[in-house]
Write a structure and sequence with these properties.
The structure holds two protein chains of two kinds.
Chain A lengths: L2 E5 L2 E3 L5 E8 L8 E6 L5 E7 L6 E3 L7 E6 L4 E6 L8 E7 L9 E5 L2
Chain B lengths: L2 E4 L2 E4 L5 E7 L12 E6 L6 E5 L3 E2 L7 E6 L2 E6 L8 E7 L6 E2 L3 E5 L1
Parallel strand pairs in B: 2-11
Antiparallel strand pairs in B: 1-3, 3-8, 4-5, 4-9, 5-6, 7-8, 9-10, 9-11
The chains are: A mainly beta, B mainly beta.
Chain lengths: 114, 111
Amino acid sequence: EVQLVESGGGLVQPGGSLRLSCSASGFRFSAYVMFWVRQAPGKGLEYVSGIGSDGRDIDYADSVKGRFSISRDNSRNILYLQMTSLRPEDTAIYHCVKDGVDFWGQGTLVTVSS
Amino acid sequence: VVMTQSPLSLPVTLGQPASISCRSSQSLVYSDGNTYLNWFQQRPGQSPRRLIYKVSNRDSGVPDRFSGSGSGTDFTLKISRVEAEDVGVYYCIQGSHWPRTFGQGTKLEIK
């Protein structure tokens, strides 16, 4: 059974940092592009960042470029999102997504507020 | 690759058909001959779920009132008879080019 389990969300002050993790199981993690998608309260889905299967290709939405960093550990089947200089508008549920969008994690809530 | 959906809002009467268009700025035919265009749905308060993969293949458990069609740069998701449980936002996403990109979403509501 495919599982994507995010962790690391929480309440952080503006300007702070968080690192999200996504633990994957049930499929050959190292063979797939993975990405992060977020959903702010009452809003639609927003692509955040993507990473190629071997970690060499990386992409960011303009809204997070220079502040967020995506990475992966294929030996441990974990996807990461390092978030720095957080802003209130980064408040959202962050989902880890397998390429093909056939599997989504339940998401982890990030709240940026003073 | 820019993915453009229309309409962005779709009020539909129960039992009536619905259609959503998705256009890509480049052909989505991949070098292996496949076209990686998927559709997924997000119902209110739920995580997204995929409905259609590679243009026209329904995922397991998806009602047959959902169908996908198209080729190249022009794709369509059709619902033959809308039911109350179909309310939500529908997105297309391409997996043929890097980076992956998806449409703005189409909000389906019942009239």
